[in-house]
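tmp note - Unconventional myosin-Ib
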Amino acid sequence: MEVKTSLLDNMIGVGDMVLLEPLSEDSFIENLRNRFDHNEIYTYIGSVVISMNPYRSLPIFTPEKVEEYRNRNFYELSPHIYALADEAYSSLRDQDKDQCILITGESGAGKTEASKLVMSYVAAVCGKGQEVNKVKEQLLQSNPVLEAFGNAKTVRNDNSSRFGKYMDIEFDFKGDPLGGVISNYLLEKSRVVKQPRGERNFHVFYQLLSGASDDTLKKLKLDRDFSKYNYLSLDSAAVNGLDDAANFRTVRNAMQIVGFMEDEVQSVLELVAAVLKLGNIEFKPESRCNGTDESRIKDKNDLKEMCELLGIEQSVLERAFSYRTVEAKLEKVSTTLNVSQAYYARDALAKNLYSRLFSWLVTRINESIKAQAKTRHKVMGVLDIYGFEIFEDNSFEQFIINYCNEKLQQIFIELTLREEQEEYVREGIEWTNIEYFNNAIICDLIENHQNGILAMLDEECLRPGTVTDETFLDKLNTICAEHQHFESRLSKNSKFLTDHSLPHSCFRIQHYAGKVLYRTEGFVDKNNDLLYRDLSQAMYKATHSLIKQLFPEGNPAKVNLKRPPTAGFQFKASVGTLMRNLQTKNPNYIRCIKPNDKKAAHIFTDSLVRHQARYLGLMENVRVRRAGYAFRQAYEPCLERYKMLCKRTWPHWRGPAREGVEVLMGDLQVPTEEYSYGRSKIFIRNPRTLFFLEERRRQCLQDLATLIQKIYRGWKCRSHFLLLKESQIVVAAWYRRFAQQKKYKKIKSATTVMQSYARGWQARKLLRELKYQKRCEEAVTTISAFWHGTQARMELRRLKQEALNKYAVTVIWAYWQGTKARRELRQLKEEARNKHAVSVIWAGWQGTKARRELRRLKEEARRKHAVAVIWAYWQGLKVRREYRKFFRANAGKKIYDFTIQRIMQKYFLGLKSTTPSMSPVDMNWPTRPYRFLDGVHTELRRIFHLWRCKKYRSQFTEEQKAVYEEKLEASEIFKDKKTLYPSSVSQPFKGDYLEISKNPKYQKLSSAVDEKVLLADVVNKINRANGKGTPRIFLLTKKSVVLADQKTGQVKASVPLPDLSSVSVSTQSDGFFALRLKEGSASAIKGDFLLSSEHLIEIITKLHRTGATAADSEQLNIDISDEFLVQFKQDKVCVKFIQAAALKNGNSVSCKRKNNRLLEVSVPASA
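out:
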């Protein structure tokens, strides 16, 4: 059973300040202290949430807490920021009311964290899904990016927002987020060039130097040492608990999630590095011959590196720092800048460069997170802006900030009273007008179009002549002297002439939160916020892609002599737009308070909290809320909470809830003037009445608790007795069962013993009988065996005797035969020995005769050989003597040449018979017979191959030649560059795949095209919104490319070939290609074409050949890369090709939109 709690249950102090009794500033502060000491950092003022910064983590922001406050009534649980976020989200989702959450407070009060908590709660309770989660992630990840570039460490806050932010989160009818829009207000760009003591520049500078890799820093020409940069404060470069390196990685990841491309991130980092380099540029004075002073740059190394980062010519930027050109109609006057003016120009450029970069980041984030659908959206706005500021030295920034807070206070009072009044009218309660301070007179003092302070400041900045802060103050003293909220010592009002707390160079305004003293020094310069035109034009000449977007006024073709609007005018317009936006939405307020200046936990400084409570107007808010009815509650929860105070309503009321409340209030005898009945709520005027009801409820609850305890104890004792009784019955039953089982086992055991004895006696008796019978059978068998054995032995002896007699005769005969055989053998051996002796003697005599004859023949042969050798030598000598007179000295060379000639002749004749076939693809060639023929062998092979190729080409017709020329050009373009190319080599180039001239379906299209169609095929035109393709007919003629509808044949687009700048394809095996159009051409209005075809190689080859042969067109560039940009109308979209192991739709290519700037094409990996 779910137990519901209430705001009034277990309350520490008073959870809603409207119920505080007695109401005073001291009791108000004491109630905040009491709750803060018990870790209750949230307190209500009606529907307004007061948030105290605890400066530590508390276990009240867990996912369990999110579920606890989800879909709950605002006052149902203890005060929490989740209750306000849930109330706003539920009203937006269920009642279709646009909401805004206004978060105010001074620096360090926790405004940024409060806005994060609101956004994280809304993200947690809204719908789920891949697209919804992606939108939520982009909305949440926009915070780290903006914090890095817009937040800084101050003396009051380590992560202080130095800009105002308003985010509109857009939802669909189900309450799921679709996107958002961010607006930024008044970035404190003066911090870029100068920071107060103990404070830092913006976080991104320190994060870049601490977290970037060495390679990245080398590309940006930066060093990790903070001390090398003049724009970085060194006394507080390191902050405890702040890891700049880890935060840099977080920012890079957040930019990737939001949708920044890698080249965009690199461009942003280059601009940040350029700002750091810009601060290191220093100037020295130099006197000219005419007596004027001019400035020169001391060390040009930083200037050189900055120009290399931004792609600016060094001489152009150097001149812009030394000279200023003033244009007036048709005249141009160039003046030199002294050192102080040069430093002013440098700082102005740094501030403008950074502030414009920040505005570009906001615009770029808006492009990524904006809602895609065009239908009407529900909107929830979250405003995180500066609180009211009162410093010892207040300047132009504090004046602008406090003006914004005056407008917010004005709309707060108006919307609070309006909401109060509308609720009374809606509930039918009589309304009494509430007296309150209307700060419209202060807003009019500042923003009046004629006599307002901002109007006079703009007038001073625009008028000719000498304009200083003193002339501006004089004008204020003249015009605003009689205003009751303006104070100046030099005004006509005599009561301030002797006020020594008011310096001569200052003026004081009595704001709703107190008096603030403003020093006029710097008002005019900060309002002008001038950047010399020379610097703007120098920036526009940069080759850096982002710089041109940031300085459009530097375009020489669009010179505008009109003075740019002042900072005050721009901020006033922005505030006006913001106020009109807020007035169209239902407001929800979070007032953030800083408990101490030490940024420490468990410390509550009364004076500081009191000061913040005053300028936030919290007491006025309580009084306005209590001026009518202090407490209101719907009839159902009111009756549910207090029904036990009346016997007629307890425990159940059967009728309508309002009648039950009327019966209840009448039975309690509450005075009728203390409450009123609305249509759906009861309104209680005085908190004492509510506390009276709570006290009676507490007493009744005690009585009910006692009654419940009594009934519970009786029920518990009866239950215990019944349990004991039931247990006794169960125990007795189990015991009787156990006793019977034991008796049965004993009887069974005795019976088993008796049975075993009887069976044993019977078995032994049977065994004895069987043994006796067996012995008898064995005796008969033994006697029979002995008798048969005796008979067998007698027969055996008889047989042996007979055998012995036969064996003796055989042996005697065998011995006689052996003796005869041996005698015969000896006789034969004697005869054989006599014959062998004769043979040996004859063989010896024959061998002697043969050896003697052999020696005689050898001697005779040696004599004949000697004679032949001598004769050969003699014949050779005679020949040489005879022919010596016929030979000259070069006879050896002639013999060598003759020999070589014969070898070559033999080589060529052999080559004739071994020549390979006439096929150009036959790479066989006979081996060389001699090494000195290497060169000739190679050259002959080359000449033969060229000759047979020529013979082979001479067989081609003109059509075949054109096809092979196209195939050759395709090879030059795509070979070893695109994976798809090898599979296209074997496919012939057909050209007209649709037979457009013969097909009657395309007769209308054929007549619409005048030139000869070189190629006709069906392609898919890729839609950038979802990555899906639409079939189109693709026609290529000698002059243009035509895209037509496949079904109707109607021409959708016709692009002349001179308007094509390049074609982009990937290196993968896909068929995607992009037709890139020249900027400024008539065809480029609708943007480039992203197409897909099965005949990609043929289309690109024919396009390239046609473009090369056309007389009026340039060579068409073919860009082969896995990532390229395509211009769709005004937006550039990156098409990225990735390899996927396996795709859901088999091996086909799929294209999906990842975000507004990225189309991802998944290509199956090649085997």
